[in-house]
Protein: SAM-dependent methlyltransferase
Amino acid sequence: MTTTPVPVLRTAYQKSVADYWNAEKAPVNLRLGDVDGLYHHHYGIGDYDRAVLDGPEDTRDERIIAELHRLESAQADVLLDHLGPIAPGHRLLDAGCGRGGSSIMANARFGCQVDGVSISEAQVEFANGQARKRGVDDKVRYHFRNMLDTGLPTGAFQGIWNNESTMYVDLFDLFAEHARQLAFGGRYVVITGCSNDVTGGRSKAVSRIDEHYTCNIHPRSAYFKAMAANGLVPMNVVDLTDATIPYWELRAESSLATGVEDPFLTAYKEGSFHYLLIAADRV
Structure:
């Protein structure tokens, strides 16, 4: 008996998102990753060193890029801090892994197996190349799969995270799949931008962010409703909004600015948009 493989890309929207990321070669992602070979697809947190704006003009942009990369790696470290106790024998899942930088960091910290999934074949190929280059491809593997239905084993993962990738999917479907894959007592962590339930829906700045990334930003309350429906109990909720504003202010000073910096800063400062970390246990 044969079965027809389930397609990774199931809707026209998913295909459009995959096309976007397959074609994406934005310097704001690639040049930051070139600093040390950790390629991220998320933003940064923490105060930046004001000294990077001083000094010789011909190396100013290089200093800014290195500092932006330090801030985005600091963000990944904060996410990993919230995964709880992870042992080398555990298994982790990076859902919406991008070019794989956070997975590499997780393996380096915990020594465990890490799987990443993305609907972008270009990202998966790039990330697997980086794992091979670092000699960790026996422990860090990336897969062309849909994070709403990965086909990965039930209850196999001690930790799962989404780092700025939930705005592309239905949260109830996503958290149902994560709950299936997590071991009981396992930890799920998400860092995401989310809209203010009262004012976000009518914010022009939030709409501009949606349009820029072809995504659908969820209201803050939607995360907690979808978690409650799928046996995920929040243990820590951290508002990172104030911590991420310096990153955006510095990025606006760089040659890598894309034009979306002003909407982010406006949305954060007007309170229509939040940068949130939620760590939840599977019960």
Remarks:
- The chain has one domain: 74-282.
